[in-house]
Design goal:
The chain is mainly alpha-helical. It folds into two domains: 91 residues, Arc Repressor Mutant, subunit A; 31 residues. The chain has six helices and three strands. The chain has a three-stranded antiparallel sheet with strand order 1-3-2. Helix 3 packs across helix 4. It is globular and about 50 Å long. It starts with 9 loop residues before the first helix and ends with a helix.
Length: 155
């Protein structure tokens, strides 16, 4: 650590793991011939995780511009995989949800995700893997209020 940066600190490790798992996932999706791009698959996966979800929150979760999420949603809605409905509390806002037509693709994406996690896990014993998962959940929980505070300060 001669330059003040520890290349093995938890932030770099989590970033590296995330990048590598995402790359593996995207490669497998591209090879699977699902009829969606890897980026569209990520959108579908995040909608499945959080649905119904407002478009702008989906963009925030994916770390992409709101204009970009609109383009993805337009394509996926055109393919019959997503639907938008007006938020009853704010008609300008739209909620996004999966359609029934997306379920076969989601099942395949789920299997691909499991393959990626198994590859990442390697021969790590069950107890260690579960401990890592619980630790990661705790880290996310610890960071949620910090993130909210940063958002509030930016407004």
């Amino acid at each position: 650590m001669k330059n003040g940066i520890d290349p093995e600190n938890i932030s770099f490790l989590l970033s590296d793991i995330s990048r590598m798992m995402r790359s593996d996932f995207e490669q497998r999706v591209a090879e699977a011939g699902l009829g969606v791009t890897p980026a569209e698959a990520r959108v579908l996966a995040h909608v499945a995780r959080c649905q119904p979800i407002r478009q702008h929150l989906l963009a925030d979760r994916l770390g992409i511009a709101r204009m970009s999420i609109t383009t993805f949603i337009d394509r996926l809605e055109g393919a019959g995989l997503l639907e938008r409905v007006a938020d009853p509390e704010d008609r300008r806002a739209k909620f996004v949800s999966l359609t029934a037509a997306a379920l076969p693709i989601m099942n395949k994406l789920g299997k691909i995700g499991e393959e990626v996690r198994l590859a990442a896990r390697g021969d790590i014993p069950d107890e260690e893997w579960e401990h890592f998962r619980k630790t990661a959940l705790a880290i996310r929980c610890n960071l949620a209020p910090v993130r909210q505070q940063v958002k509030e300060m930016a407004q």
